[in-house]
Structures are given as C-alpha cells and as structure tokens.
Give the backbone structure.
Amino acid sequence: MIENKRLTVDIEPIYTAPGNPGDVNVQVAITSLIFCNIIDEDDSTIQPTTGAMGGDTTIDVYMVKAGDTPDPQVNIIMKNLKLPAGETLFFDTERFVLGAGDSIQARTSEDNKVVATVSLLTV
C-alpha cells in the first residue's frame, strides 16, 4: 500500500496506522519513505539575501507513538534535512513497524514543495 501527502510548514501526519492504540493485532511495516522536492531545478533562483536556491527546502520527520505528539527532543528522526530543488530522497534500508495509532509526521520549511510517499505492508 502507498500513502502520499504534500507537506506544509505545519507538522501533520503522513500516515497513521489504523486501529485503536493498544490493539496488538495491528502492525504495519514501513518499507520505504520517499521525499520529493517537486520544484524544478530550472525554476529555482538564487535568493539575494541568503545565496540559497529558491527551490531548496528542509524537512523534519517524526515517528510518533500513539497518544504522543511530535517533539524535536523525543521522536524526531530527521531534522532540517536539506532537500534541493528537483531532488528525491529515499529511505529504504531501515524498516519501521508501527502499532495501532502510531504515526509518521512531517513538515517542510515552505508549503507545497515536497511530496512525501510512504510504502507500507500490513503484517
């Protein structure tokens, strides 16, 4: 199964495992996370104040246990990860297993520049 979400500056769930927290019969294996900066490199311009490319952005990603909230001191797994214009970032080596109500949440430094894709398998 695949879930897609366009990221915003607000921390929002990309995927939440189904079921009620504590239900031991629900487990979902995350097989890959993909983040694509959909701004074309050709459409980027150098920002005069920072020297950064205008299409570049950063992402924060959290693995949040059911009932908890995203917290950069507790459950962040990627912080301020730069994603240049036109680039795609794959995380497909490590596997995560989510229980009922657990979630993957994310945000980006600028609205609507990044599409997040989660590939998952119910176990």
Observations:
- The mean pLDDT is 89.
- The two ends are 12 Å apart (CA to CA).
- The beta strands are 2-6, 12-16, 27-37, 57-64, 76-83, 88-91, 96-99, 103-108, 114-122.
